[in-house]
């Protein structure tokens, strides 16, 4: 089957993502993708140069998608159409269904964390939006601490749930949404104004 260069690249990246989600980063080889698509190994070398080139392109694509998702949430928040608690669903969906959990773990283990820089910029924008909406609930430093604590809390939980949550939930006999529900219940407490002398460490 003859394909345009754009079609071939798109199909290869789709195949690589399937392999990442199903079998992990080590499964993403030029041979595996070529076999999956009925495409020649040489053809993939022409498009990506190497397996590392294919993996880097997949990283860029997935980071771009995650960035767009978070940007959309920020826009909804600014327009008054979203709530702070929506951050739980946004982050958990991105790390789980979108594959960002596998992606982040892969980046950390391969020393490619610099690819996450665009997400950092958007997360900071989200935090700024939440902080502006919390005006009057305390001084700026206290609000910043609460909002960043909530961001760390939910993001680390979402990452862990995406990577090992399935196995842990089976061990303790809990439902698929257990960690997400727990975060949703605890998030208001993390964000709530603290009594004088209190605060999060």
Automatic annotation (TrEMBL):
Domain HTH tetR-type: 6-66
Key words of the record: DNA-binding
Claim: Calcium is one of the keywords in the record: no
Residue ranges for the DNA-binding region feature of this UniProt entry: 29-48
Coiled-coil positions: none
Xref: Gene3D superfamilies: Tetracycline Repressor, domain 2 (1.10.357.10)
Domain of life: Bacteria
PROSITE patterns: HTH_TETR_2 (PS50977)
Metal-binding found in the keyword field: no
Protein name, UniProt field: TetR/AcrR family transcriptional regulator
């Amino acid at each position: 089957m003859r394909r345009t260069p754009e079609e071939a690249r798109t199909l290869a990246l789709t195949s690589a993502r399937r392999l990442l989600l199903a079998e992990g980063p080590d499964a993403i080889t030029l041979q595996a993708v070529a076999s999956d698509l009925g495409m020649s190994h040489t053809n993939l070398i022409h498009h990506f140069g190497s397996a590392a080139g294919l993996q880097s392109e997949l990283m860029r694509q997935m980071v771009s998608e995650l960035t767009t998702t978070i940007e959309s949430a920020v826009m909804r928040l600014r327009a008054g159409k979203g709530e702070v608690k929506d951050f739980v669903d946004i982050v958990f969906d991105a790390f789980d269904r979108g594959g960002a959990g596998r992606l982040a773990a892969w980046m950390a283990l391969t020393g490619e964390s610099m690819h996450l820089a665009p997400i950092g910029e958007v997360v900071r924008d989200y935090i700024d939006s939440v902080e502006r909406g919390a005006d009057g609930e305390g001084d700026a430093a206290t609000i910043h601490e609460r909002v960043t604590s909530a961001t760390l809390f939910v993001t680390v939980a979402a990452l862990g749930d995406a990577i090992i949550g399935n196995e842990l939930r089976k061990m303790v006999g809990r439902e698929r949404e257990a960690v997400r529900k727990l975060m949703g219940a605890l998030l208001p407490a993390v964000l709530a104004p603290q009594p004088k002398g209190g605060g999060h460490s």
